[in-house]
C-alpha cells in the first residue's frame, strides 16, 4: 500500500500504518516480537509497544527494522509517511488543495474488497498463485490502477539466510510470468519496486486497445496470477488485510500423493499469533488435496498465515521432514 500521495493522512493514521507494516514483515520473516527486538538491539518489549501503538516510531527503529526484515524499503516508506504527517501537523491550517483527478490506490476508503479469493496450486516443483478480487469503488473519482505485492521467504525465521539466498537467486519477471485481467481485458502492469524477494506492481485498468477505469459506485472482478519455483517459495502463505474486506477465501491445492497437512494462525494489530478460529476444510479434487479456509469481515491489518507439511516428501532443509 502506498500513501505517499495522500496528504490527508493524520499522524495517528501514519503511526498505525507504520506499526502494521512492521508487524506484516515480522510475520513474513517468521520472527517473534522478542526475536526481532533482540536482532535490532532493543528491549524485548519495545517491538510490542511499537506494534500496539503504545510507542511512536523513531528513525532508528525504522532503519534497523528495515535492515533486519529486508522489507524492500516498505518500512522506511512508512516512516517517511509518518514524518511527513508530523510535519504537516505542525504547519498552520491552510485551505485544502484541489483533489487529484486520478485517485491513488488505497487513498482513504475509496476501494472496498467485496470478495478476495486466493488459490495456490503446487505441482511438485513450482507454485502458481491465482488471485481473484471483486473491487467496489466507494469514492467519487475513477480508479485507474491497483497495487499488488509479491513477497517470498524461503527460510522463515532466518532472515540472513533468506537474504543471502535471494541475492544469489533473485525472483525474476520471466519466471513470475505475471498475467492480469479485468472485464475480459488484459491489464497492463508497471513495476513500482523490484527487489530480490519483493515486488510491488501497479495493475493498470487499460491496455493497448483502450481504458476501462473503475468508476464510482461500480464493482468489478480483477484476476492476476504468477508462478514461483519451490526453491524460492517457503512452505507458508500469508494474507494481509490492507483494505476493507467483506469476504476472504484461501485455497491450497497439493498433489494428494504428497500427503499434505495444513494449519494456520491469525494475528491482529493487538494480539499475538493464535490458531485460526476455524480449521481449513479438506476435499479431494482430481488427484489433488485441496484445503479451503474462509472468513467474513476480517479486521483491517489482520494477517492470516497458512503453513503446510508434505509428509511424503522430507523437507530439503531438515532431517525430519518438518518445515523450517
Describe the structure.
- The protein is of the alpha+beta class and 324 residues long.
- Helix content is 23%, strand content 35%.
- α1 (11-28) runs antiparallel to α5 (74-90) and α4 runs antiparallel to α5.
- The longest helix has 18 residues, at 11-28.
- Residues 1-5, 96-109 and 318-324 have low confidence and may be disordered.
Q: In a few lines, what is going on in this structure?
A:
By secondary structure, the chain is of the alpha+beta class. The protein has helices at residues 11-28, 33-40, 46-52, 59-69, 74-90, 159-168, 173-176; strands at 111-122, 126-137, 145-151, 179-182, 185-186, 188-194, 198-204, 206-207, 210-211, 219-229, 236-240, 247-255, 260-267, 274-275, 281-285, 288-296, 303-310. It contains seven helices and 17 strands.
Q: How much beta, percentage-wise?
A: 25-35%
What distance lies between the first and last C-alpha atoms, to the nearest angstrom?
A: 29 Å
Stretches where pLDDT falls below 50 for ≥5 residues? 1-5, 96-109, 318-324
Secondary structure tally, helices: 7
Percentage of helical residues? 10-25%
Query: How are strands sequenced across the largest beta sheet?
Result: 5-4-10-2-1-12-16-15
Mean pLDDT: 87
Largest pleated sheet:
8 strands, mixed
Number of strands: 17
Shape, principal axes of CA atoms: globular
Structural class: alpha+beta
Elements, N to C (H/E): HHHHHEEEHHEEEEEEEEEEEEEE
Gyration radius (Cα, Å) is: 20 Å
Question: Which properties best describe this structure?
Answer:
324 residues, alpha+beta, 17 strands, disordered N terminus, single chain, globular, four-stranded antiparallel sheet
Amino acid at each position: 500500500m502506498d500513501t505517499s500521495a495522500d496528504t490527508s493522512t493524520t499522524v495517528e493514521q501514519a503511526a498505525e500504518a507504520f506499526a502494521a507494516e512492521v508487524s506484516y514483515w515480522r510475520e513474513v520473516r517468521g520472527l517473534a516480537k522478542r526475536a526481532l527486538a533482540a536482532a535490532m538491539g532493543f528491549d524485548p518489549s519495545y517491538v510490542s509497544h511499537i506494534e500496539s501503538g503504545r510507542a511512536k516510531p523513531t528513525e532508528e527503529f525504522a532503519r534497523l527494522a528495515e535492515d533486519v526484515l529486508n522489507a524492500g524499503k516498505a518500512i522506511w516508506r512508512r516512516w517517511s509517511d509518518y514524518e511527513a504527517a508530523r510535519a504537516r501537523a505542525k504547519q498552520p491550517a491552510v485551505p485544502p488543495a484541489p483533489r487529484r483527478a486520478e485517485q491513488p490506490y488505497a487513498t482513504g476508503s475509496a476501494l472496498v474488497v467485496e470478495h478476495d479469493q486466493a488459490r495456490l496450486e503446487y505441482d511438485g516443483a513450482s507454485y502458481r498463485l491465482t488471485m481473484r478480487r471483486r473491487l467496489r469503488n466507494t469514492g467519487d473519482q475513477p480508479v485507474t490502477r491497483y497495487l499488488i505485492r509479491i513477497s517470498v521467504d524461503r527460510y522463515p525465521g532466518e532472515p540472513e539466510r533468506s537474504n543471502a539466498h535471494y541475492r544469489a537467486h533473485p525472483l525474476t519477471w520471466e519466471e513470475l510470468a505475471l498475467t492480469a485481467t479485468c472485464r475480459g481485458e488484459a491489464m497492463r502492469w508497471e513495476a513500482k519496486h523490484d527487489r530480490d524477494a519483493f515486488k510491488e506492481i501497479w495493475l493498470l485498468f487499460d491496455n493497448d486497445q483502450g481504458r476501462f477505469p473503475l468508476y464510482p459506485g461500480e464493482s468489478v472482478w480483477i484476476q492476476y496470477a504468477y508462478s514461483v519455483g519451490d526453491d524460492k517459495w517457503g512452505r507458508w502463505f500469508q494474507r494481509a488485510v490492507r483494505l476493507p474486506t467483506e469476504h476472504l477465501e484461501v485455497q491450497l491445492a497439493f498433489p494428494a500423493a504428497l500427503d499434505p497437512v495444513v494449519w494456520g494462525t491469525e494475528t491482529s494489530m493487538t494480539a499475538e499469533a493464535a490458531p485460526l478460529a476455524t480449521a481449513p476444510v479438506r476435499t479431494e479434487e482430481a488427484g489433488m488435496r485441496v484445503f479451503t479456509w474462509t472468513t467474513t469481515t476480517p479486521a483491517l491489518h489482520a494477517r492470516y498465515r497458512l503453513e503446510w507439511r508434505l509428509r511424503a516428501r522430507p523437507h530439503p532443509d531438515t532431517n525430519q521432514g518438518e518445515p523450517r
